[in-house]
Request: fold
Amino acid sequence: MNAYVGTPTSRVDGRAKVTGAAKYAGEFPADGLVHGFVVEATIPCGRIARLDSTEALKVKGVLDVLTHANRPPLADADEAWKDEVAPEDGSPFRPLYDDSVKFNGQPIALVVAEDWETAKFAATLVRVEYQEAQAFATDLEAERGKAAEVKKPHKPRGDAAAALAGAAARHEADYFIPTEHHNPMELFATTAVWDGDGRLTVYDKTQGVQNVHKFLCGVFDRKPDDVRVVSPYVGGAFGSGLRPQYQVVLATLAALALKRSVRVVLTRQQMYGIGYRPATIERVGLGATSDGTLDAVTHEATAITSRYEDFSRNDAGWADQLYRSPNTRFTHKLVRLDVSTPCDMRAPGAASGVCALECAMDELAVALKLDPIELRLKCYSDRDQSEGLPYTSKQLRECYARGADAFGWSRRSPTPRSMRDGKELVGWGMATGIWEALQMPVAVRIVLTSNGHAEVSCAASDIGTGTYTIVAQVAADALGLPIENISVRLADSTLPQAPVEGGSWMAASSAHAVLAAAEEVRKELLRLAGTMPGSPLAGAELADTVLIDGRIATTSDNSRTVSIADAMRHGNVERIEKEKLNQFDEDKKHARNTHSAVFAEVKVDEQLGVIRVTRMVSAVAAGRILNTKTGRSQIMGSVVWGIGMALHEETVMDPRFGRIMNPNIAEYHIPVNADIQDIDVIFVDEPDAHINALGVKGLGEIGIVGVPAAIANAVYHATGKRIRRFPITLDRLLD
Ligand code: MOS
Reply:
C-alpha cells in the first residue's frame, strides 16, 4: 500500500528544473512586456522634499516614472495591507504611498521602460532631494537600553532570579546574533500580465499565492476574479517570500497605470531592502546544582524591529520544551530602529535563541565538568513544561545516541586544545535542535479519469522543499496508481485553499489533504462498483477498502475487487472530481515538536585563525519521513546554512548612514562548496500515533537549529576560546 511514501523518490519536478522547462516569476513572457527598475532612498529616515524625473523621462524607451506623487490609488487602511503573515502590531510598509522615508534602501520610484537596461540607466537620472530627520538609529547594541518587552509568550515558573543567584554552578552571558539575509538564488520578481480588460495574471515569487492574491485585491481594490496569482516554482525563499514583497505591489501598480504587462525584478542589492533575520542579543542564564541538575533558566532575547511594525518570534522559550528546570523566566524585547521590518528566516526564533541556549548549556557543562550530552540527558524533559504536556512523540534520546555513535563522540577527549591533526587544533562540539510540528488546513482537488490518470491540485507553493513530489507520492499510494500517472498542479490562487508554505507545516498539511480528497474519490468508486450486477464489493464498508494497482479492493478479503476502469465504465463516468478541505483535530493534550542532535568537528589553524568544519552529523527525529531523499536534502541545506550562521553570515550596517554596507554575496559571506565537507544526515525512527494519521511532523527548519551552537562549541573545544559573537570569524578568534 505504501509503494512511494517513505521512499527516496526523486523529485517529480526535477527534470523540468534541470532542463529549464520550469518557469520562474521573472521568466513568464507577455505581449508588449515592459520593465520596471526600482529607485531606492539613500537616507534612513525623513521625507522626500523633491523628486525630479525630468531627465529620466527624456531617455528613449522610458515610458513612465511612478512615484508617490503620480501613482494610481492604493488602499489607505492598514487592514488592506495586512497579509496573513503580517505582524499583529503595526502598520505594514506601503511602497510609493507617500513622501516618508522609513529605511535606507526603501523603494521611492519605479522607472518603467521598454527594456530593463534602459529602465536601470534612467533610474540613475532620477534626482531626489530629502528632508532628513534630525536623528535616526540603526544599531541594536547602541539602542539596547531602549528595548521594550512586547509579549510574554511563556509564563514564568518559580523564581528564576533567586534560583540563579543561589545556584551552585552558574553561567550567564550575552550571545550576539547579527542581522542575516536570506539570499535565495532566485531574485524577487513579478511579471504582472495585463489581460486586456483590467484583469491581471500576476506571476510572483512567493511562498503563498492566495496570500498575495488577497493582499493585491485589498491594496488595489480589485474583485477576486480580477486578479490571479501564479507561482509554480520558487528558487528559494526561506521565509523571505512569506509576506507579499514590494516588487509585487510595484509591478501591479505599473501594470494598472500603463495598462500593459510589466515585470519588476529586484537586483541582489535591492533584495537587502526586504526582510531579514533580526539581529538579537540573547542573554541566557543557567543555574545548576552541583550534580548537574538545572535549577534555573533565564532567557532574555532583545531583537530589532522597524519603527512601523513589531516583528517578534519565540527566541527565548525553547528551554521549556528541552530541559527540566523548576525555575524559568523567558522574555522577549524589541528595539525599534530606522530599518525595514525583519521577517521569518528559516526556523525563525529558534535558530537564534536555541543557538544561545545550546552554547550556554555547553558552557555550563564545562563548569560542571560534565560531558555535554550527559548534562542534556540529566535535564531531559519528557514534557513541555510550559503547559505540562507530554509530546506526541520525542525520540531525542535516540538522536543523541545515534548521532554520537555515528560521529564517534566516545573518542572525544574532553579537555579543550587536547586534540590535534598536524598543525591544526581539532574540536568536537554538539548541540540540541528543536522545532515545531505544525499543521494547517489545506484543501486538495483530485480529478481521476477513466484512463487511470489523476490530477491533484492545490494552491500550496513548492518553495523547493519537494511539495510536488510528496503530494504525488501520497496521491499515488492513496489512489493505487503508479506515480507517473499522477500530475500535480500547485501555486495558482484559483486552486483549492492553502496557507503560505512555511513553518515546516506543508508536508503534513498537504499530505493529509491529499488523503482526505482521495478518500472521497474512493467513496465514489465504491459506490459505482458496489452497484455493478453481482459486484464482489456489494455491501463493502468504505473503511474496509483500498485502492491498489488500479483496483478497488477490500482489505479483509483481497479477492473482492473491481478495477477502477470497470467501476467508472459501469457508472458511465469519464472522470471523478472531488475536492476536500482537511482540518486537523485539535489536540490540547500533547505538545508537538521535532528534535535533533547535531555534532560538529572543526579544524582550526591557530596561527591564521582559519576554521574549517570538517564533519557534521545531524540526527533528526521528525516523525515519519515521507521522502527520505528530499528530506535529506532539506536537512543538508539547513546544516549548510547553520555553518553559514556560525562562521560566515552577517549583514553589516554603517550606522553613520543607516545603510547596509555588504548588500551582495561577494561581501555578505555564505558558505561555498569549499566550505562544506562531510554532512551525515540520520533520520531516527519516530513512530507517532498522536500527531496525525500518517505520523508526519514536517522537516526543513529543524535542520538549522543547533548547528551554529554545535560549531561554536567545537571551536571552544578546539581552542579553549569562547566566542559569543556570531559569526565566528578569524579576527574574532585571534582577537
Ligand atoms: Mo519559513 S522561515 O516559515 O519559510
